[in-house]
Amino acid sequence: MKISTLFATLVASLLVGLAASGSANATAFSVTSATIDQGTGYGVDDSEQTNANPTLLGAVFTNTFVAQNFALSVLNSTKVFDVGTILFNEPNTNSGIVAAETDNLGVTVNFLFTAPDNVAHLVTASGNAVTGPVNDTDVDFSIVWAPVTINFGTNGKYGISLSDLSWAGSSTQTLAATITLLALDGQTNANAVPEPASLALLALGLAGIASQRKRAKRSV
Fold it and tell me: pLDDT at residue 128 above 70?
């Protein structure tokens, strides 16, 4: 067999093996719903324009989630999708944000998975409103999420995180979720990229080919 043919055969065999390994290790995800639940401190006071003591922070949460079905096979690979939008529209009357509008600003997104587990998962955030005018360049409102890690199967693991958001004045922003595959079920160190043993095998094959080339040159 020619050296070039031997090399091509070796590389093709390794790639086929790695592809098959990655495919077999893929974890299927199915997210059927994701709903946003906001605290009682959000809303629009009916008399905001004239009320000197408003109690609700002007923010509107809208669900835009579409069911997600996907697979992840490489450790730390991710899938990103939209959950909803948040419109911050606090008026600047009454000096903007007042102290009574800074409490009860928690937010929760409730995810329902049917694969790889069949469980509802909650991701929570604390909203932070800063008292003062909302017509300047300073940050008026922010939402910071606490990501969660979920175990499934024997030793599978994935994470759910949501995008942290901040506003300086009125605008609508998109809330996105990220699913990250942290561990493959049933395997302790599997991945869809070349493993050390595969790389060692490739190196051994290349060394053998190089040795054959040297012997061929000497015999000429």
Answer: yes
Name which of 37, 46, 39, 60 is nearest 128 in CA terms: 39
Tell me phi and psi for residue 51, to 5 degrees: -75, 120
Percent of the chain with pLDDT over 70: 70
Instruction: For residue 186, give both structure tokens.
Output: 């049933």
Total residue length of the chain? 220
- Model confidence band, residue 205 (pLDDT cutoffs 50, 70, 90): low
Which two tokens mark 147? 């990501």
Structure tokens at 93: 């009357």
CA dihedral 203, 204, 205, 209 (to 10 degrees): 100
- pLDDT single digits (tens) 100-113: 999 999 999 999 99
pTM: 0.74
Q: Which of 111, 118, 125, 114 is nearest to 178 (CA)?
A: 111
Look at residues 180, 174, 148 and name the one whose alpha carbon lies nearest to residue 80.
180
Q: How far apart are CA 213 and CA 218, in angstroms?
A: 9
| Strand residues in the chain grouped as ranges (E) | 27-38, 59-63, 68-72, 78-88, 106-115, 120-129, 141-146, 148-152, 156-162, 165-167, 171-183
Confidence of residue 67 (pLDDT cuts 50, 70, 90): very high
